[in-house]
Amino acid sequence: MRTLYAISAPLCSEDAYITFHGWADAAWRGASTSPVWMLATMGRPGIARALNIVADVGATLAAWRMLEPKAFAAFVGLWCLPFFSGSCVSGLETHFAACALIVSRVHPAGLAGAAMLRPDTALVALVASGRRWRWAVAGGLLCALGLWWCGSHTIAAKLSVYGIHWLAGWQWFMPEAFGWLALLLIAAAFTRCRYYLAAMVPLVGHWLLGTPGFWWYAVPSLAMLSFLAASRVRTWWGLGLSLALCAVAIPHQQDRLINRVLGERRLWYVGREMQQAGARGTLLIEPAGIIPWLNPDLRVIDEVGLVAPEMADIRRAGPGWYGMAIRRNNPDWIVIRTSQMASLLLGEPMEAFSGSGLMFASAAEQNNLMRDYVPTKKLEIAKTAAGLAFRVNTSSLVVLRRKNPLPDR
Predict the structure, then answer these.
(1) In terms of C-beta density within 10 A (0-12 exposed, 13-18 middle, 19 or more buried), how is residue 394 classed?
(2) For 214-257, how does the pLDDT look when each residue is reduced to its tens digit (9 = 90+)?
(3) The pLDDT of residue 383
(4) Number of C-beta neighbours around residue 313 at 10 A
C-alpha cells in the first residue's frame, strides 16, 4: 500500500521542503520545526521517505508483538488507510514520531525518538512515559538543543500570523482527511491509561487554541488512538466491523489525498516554470516549500515569516501588512492565489490566505503597488455568477513579475 502511494505521489508534502531547504541554506534553518529531522534526512526527500518507511515497519512489528491476532489485523486495516499511507510518503517527521510512539509500547527508546523530533511530540512522549520519563526528557533536550542551534522561530511566527482563537478548533476532533473516523477512534480507544491521555493532549490543545487544521499535526495522536482502539478487538465480529468502517472511510480519505497530490504537482510546475525563466532577486510568497526549494537563488520573503522573521512584526501591524512588505522589500517576483488575483482585477480588497486581515490599507495603495507587476502567463479568464474564474496552466497560483526590474541588489 505504501509503495502504491509512493508511486502515485512522487512529491513530498509542501511543508517538508521547508525543512529540506534548511540543510543547504542556513537562512532557512530557523523555519524548521524539527532540526533533528533536517539533519537526519540531509535535505533529501528520498531519505525522508526511506526513514518513514523503516519506522513504519518498526511500528507494525511492535503492534504485531503487542496485540492479539484479531487486534493486530484491525490495526493493520487502520494503518493501511490512505491517511497513514499518504503520511508515510509525505517526508514529514510527524509520521516517524507516530511510529516511534507505537514502538514505545515495546521499548522506551521510542519515547526518545518521538521527543527529539518536535516540541509537541516531546510533550506527548513525556505524558506517555510514566516511570520511563528519562527517555522522553533525553529526547526533548535533544529537540531543544536543535531548535536553539537553528535559532528556530517558526512557532512564534505561526502564533503571530494565525493567532489564538480560544475554543475554536473543533475540527481537531475530525482532522482533515481523517474525518468522522477520528471520533469513533476517540470513543473506542478510551481508557484511563497515560497513553490515551498523551494521544488526546495535542487534539485538545489545538482545539483550545483554535490552531488551523494542519493534518500532519494530528498524525501521532491518530496513530496512538488506532493502536489503542485496535487492541480492544477480541472477536471476529469486532474485526469485521472495524474493517468495514475502514472500507467506508477510504473514499473520503482517498479524495483528500488525491487533492493534496494535485496541489503539490501544481506547486512543482510553477517552481519549474520560474526556474526555467531564470528567476532571481527577491520573491514574496506564501507557500514557501516546493517553489523556493526549486529556486534556491531567490531571496524569499514568505508571508508567514518562517524564513523572514521580520514578517511577523509586519503582520502584527494589521491591515496593510502586504503593502508594507512590498514597500520594504521591492520584490522582483510575487506569487499569489488565483482568488487574490480575482480580487485584484475586480478592484476588491485582497484578503490574506494564511491568517487574516486585509493585505492593503486602501484601494489606492493596492492599485498603486500592484500595477508594477504583471502575470508571467496569460490568464484565461471567464466571468461567472460568483465573479471571475481562472485557468492558469491548471495552477491555483499566479506568478507576477515586476515590469521594470530593479538593478541587481
Answers:
(1) exposed
(2) 999 999 999 999 999 999 999 999 999 999 999 999 998 988 88
(3) 61
(4) 12
Closest to 319 (Cα-Cα) out of 372, 366, 285: 366
List C-alpha distances in Å: 360 to 322, 367, 405: 6, 9, 22
User: Cα separation of 274 and 17, whole Å?
Assistant: 17
> How much is the pLDDT for 7?
80
Residues of the chain with pLDDT under 70: 380-395, 406-409
Q: How is 352-386 classified by DSSP, letter by letter?
A: PSSS-SBSSSSHHHHHHHHTTEEESS--EEEEETT
The cell for 291 is: 517553489
- Specify the pTM: 0.93
Q: Report the C-alpha dihedral over residues 204, 206, 210, 212, rounded to 10 degrees.
A: -140
The number of helices, as runs of H, and strands, as runs of E, in the chain is: 20, 7
| pLDDT tens-place string over residues 43-56 | 999 999 999 999 99
- Give the angle 146-147-150 at the CA atoms, nearest 5°: 85
The CA distance from 83 to 305, in Å, is 29
Is the Cα dihedral 201, 204, 208, 211 positive or negative? positive
pLDDT of res. 104: 98
Helix (H, G, I), strand (E, B), or coil: what is residue 282?
A: strand
DSSP lists the bridge partners of residue 299 as 282
